[in-house]
What we know:
Structural class: alpha/beta
Oligomer: single chain
Shape: globular
Radius of gyration: 18 Å
Bound molecules: zinc ion
Strand order of the largest sheet: 6-5-4-7-8-13-10
Amino acid sequence: MNCPICQANTKRLFEVHGYWIRGCDKCWHQCAEIVPDTSHTTKIYADEYFHGGGAGYPDYLGEARILRNHGRQYGKMLARYMQPGRMLDVGAAAGFVLQGFTDCGWTGKGIEPNPKMAAYARNELQLAVNAGALENLPADEQFDLVNMIQVIAHFADLRQALQRAVDVTKPGGYWLIETWNRESFAARLFGQNWHEYSPPSVLHWFAPDDLRQLAAQYGMHEIKRGRPSKWINGGHAKSLLQYKLASLSLGKQAGKLLNLLPEYLPLPYLADDLFWLLLQKK
Ligand SMILES: [Zn+2]
């Protein structure tokens, strides 16, 4: 397998859940040794991902307020660089993050592989979220902003997805990408037990520099990078930790303690392993 960013050789690093994680010899990008079939996205983002816990969400709809605020925070940040315009939210789920952007004056639409989530956004939030994958989105409209918040690590065909993303970006338009940083302190501390090593839903592990290098291949140039302030609710924190602890020996006792966390208590996510990159089409 060659690196999807710089085409250099990759080699096997370690195995998680029966899947090999490979690392690039040159740019250090990491990817899962999986050849996804066309139904990959539909299978991974079946309803279970949003309600089943594990590497996904125990109760996605229960995080409505937190996710809407997350969208608003980005809306405020972007106001330093551009006027609100028309946006495409890729992997919009139930539309909460998109809703936060509309609170800041943005209009636009979303695309989401899970049909139930997309239907929720349309029916409950009156947002134009269609079921489907970015790779298959008709390029009949161009946007001022394409949002890829927590989606780029999941693309089965990274190159095809980004090509479509740039096709639907206006000249001078922007991409906002949020993803996990494999070079963060938290990622290095946990090593192979880092929570983001959860193939097959996660297929790529970026760091800001290799993401910037990849985006530049599509004519997208970095304007700014930073770290989001992220909140998750108690139930989600508990579910993620229990999923990770299950593979460790101290898991059982720690799991009991975690049950004391209230489900809907918003908790600050303190680790440094998330970053965002704002890019502009030149
Ligand atoms: Zn590489």
